[in-house]
């Protein structure tokens, strides 16, 4: 049996074998760039265009983070694109992300690396990322993404929804110890034995040694208490895009206080704001009205802070129907964005990654809106 140049085999008796030849040929040169290998209709192309537009607009803020002398650093634009890929493709760690950048041509193209460009080590990538965290670049990037949506007239200026969700902290209950207490060294430093049965623990007397900013919090009756943060979003009701977001310490009034803070950031005009029953409380309703927002919160059977003067209008029913879209935001951020269990510690970092993940959600949603418009 021998094979010709086309891989067609011919047996010794002259018969032809149409089975292909499994031979590896390593080419010395490649004449196709990553740009040519990515299909023109790939979803990442539209996201890349919107991302590049946002990065060009915040070039001045990025330049202010770097010194004018010394060795060139990792370009912040490439850092942000790589972090965006980490969110979009649910990559759990920087080490896995760097591994993907070694051989994934799609990832290389999106970040802006050539075929032969070296990939950073995970340590170098993480160290350069710290500069972006210190500069609050996520807030600026999120604002530029929202500005693009506003330019396309995808945002509602009059109707909004607020809601909060619980973000489980990257700390175990074993780390929740009495403040100022220094006990004996653990029997197993990696997984110590801790017996807290019968001990009354609260945020006033105890604190996590792993993430001091996290708080012991229970979502509701019948739910377990866990160390967590509260994430709050303000969604516009036209297309379900996030127009503002933040994280807060997990306390009983966090959702209402966070919602008031997000409403205060809106331009001064008459708006409506939808919400679930957790917001149907007099402190929130009064604060919203002082900010010029009509609270379209879900009704309570007893003790509600709104009455028929609000619920009789047709707009109230629309707000209650549309407000459920906010659960799609949280669902995407927790499953695709991997925020169900946080991978960062400290209030500032958690707020940074929450905002950045919200920006990634908006980019995905805006790509769909642009496709629908064409």
Summarize the structure.
With 374 residues, the chain is α+β, with helices and mostly antiparallel strands. It has helices at residues 34-37, 43-57, 59-63, 76-88, 94-103, 105-111, 122-134, 137-151, 254-264, 282-290, 308-311, 314-322, 326-335, 347-373; strands at residues 2-3, 9-10, 16-17, 159-168, 176-178, 206-208, 215-218, 225-236, 242-249, 271-275, 293-297.
CATH class of the largest domain: Alpha Beta
Percent in helix: 40-55%
The helix/strand class is: alpha+beta
Q: Estimate what percentage of residues fall within beta strands.
A: 5-15%
Structure, explained:
- With 374 residues, the protein is of the alpha+beta class.
- The protein has 2 domains: 38-135, no CATH class; 156-177 and 202-344, Nucleotidyltransferase, domain 5, CATH 3.30.420.10.
- The chain has 14 helices and 11 strands.
- α2 (43-57) packs across α14 (347-373), α8 (137-151) packs parallel to α14 (347-373) and α9 (254-264) runs parallel beside α10 (282-290).
- The relative contact order is 0.12.
